[in-house]
Amino acid sequence: MDKFTTLTGVAAPLPIDNVDTDMVIPKQYLKTIKRTGLGAGLFAEMRYREDGSERPDFVLNKPAYRKASIIVAGHNFGCGSSREHAPWALLDFGVRCVIATDFADIFYNNCFKNGILPIKVSRQDHAKLMDDAERGANATLTIDLKAQEIRGPDGGVVKFEIDPHRKHCLLNGLDDIGLTMVKSDKIDSFEQKAEAARPWA
Question: Regarding beta strands 140-144 and 149-151, do their DSSP bridges make them parallel or antiparallel, or are they unpaired?
Fold first, then answer.
């Protein structure tokens, strides 16, 4: 998993409440267990017409936001089913951070497991960040995980809270497997002792 330290990128505004995981990545894209290639299906029903052509009014189809790495979302983002394909699709598109007032618990947890930083902010800060994101090509935010700050294009700063363990994992690029590998020496030592004590096993 890639480390998350500081991210500076275009923030796309998605002021829609209760965006569920089926909206993030529709069910027809769930046939794969690969984490790559899903970016094309991100928000597919909002991004594309029935004939497959782009809807020009959808935010990620607008020239200023095509390479957005941050999304300022509406309230209760990621609700619905527990599909892990949702953060996979965001990551494959290039999104490393989603900002909202709140998230569905399973989606929120899945983000951390896949190297995406979900940030919860107050409604007041959310309104300011949404306004920043609506500036088009000037909608650049800097996310400083170590300092726990979001810095806006006008120099404003929004502080955010994050669980210390999750912060540590993102800063060091540690997913569940990575956390286990950090303790590989202790695991090897335990197994060697167990084998010596029970050679017949």
Answer: antiparallel
